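During the reporting period the student researcher (J.K.) took over the structure-prediction task from the postdoctoral fellow and processed the backlog of single-chain submissions. One of the processed entries is reproduced below for the supervisory committee.
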Amino acid sequence: NNNITNLGNGRGISFTLSGSDYAVITGNIINISGGNGIYINGIGINITNTTITSTGSNPAIHIAALNNGTLRGLTIRTAGSLAYGISVSTTSDSNFEMFDSILNASGTSDFFVDTNTVGGIWNLTNVTGSAEGIDKNWTSGANGTLNIHWYLDAEVKDSISGNPVNQANVTAWNKFDIFQ
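J.K. obtained the following structure tokens:
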């Protein structure tokens, strides 16, 4: 557990994980003014229970490459014209998952995909954004798949007996009346 303050004036990076395959970062508080919070270029990197607060013009997390990585329990709050919550800019496929987290980028996008991004699959499960859903910015020429998932627990009971109904089918619609 660390409390890290970076007053990099646009030049600093709080963590650089380049070639740091299978690194684990957990339980940190990172405050940034002007630099990236975490720069990632590796395999199997896991970041958990970390809070990143950033002001300036750089993302809280910049992903140059990340395969089989997991981001869990993060709280990311940024303020600034280019201070994205997460910025993806990869020249090879990158695949990662993010769970149970908050992306709150004030004044810009929560999730940004740069033009030179060639592909990947990014799964966000139970991740709350700053707007309705996750505010995304997908630049022209960028490739990749962003999947957004939510947990759902459903229990179906018989209306007369109150007992659970085995193998019941549950159908759901979102708030826009679209079948999910």
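The committee noted the following: The chain has no helices and 15 strands.
J.K. will present the remaining backlog at the next meeting.
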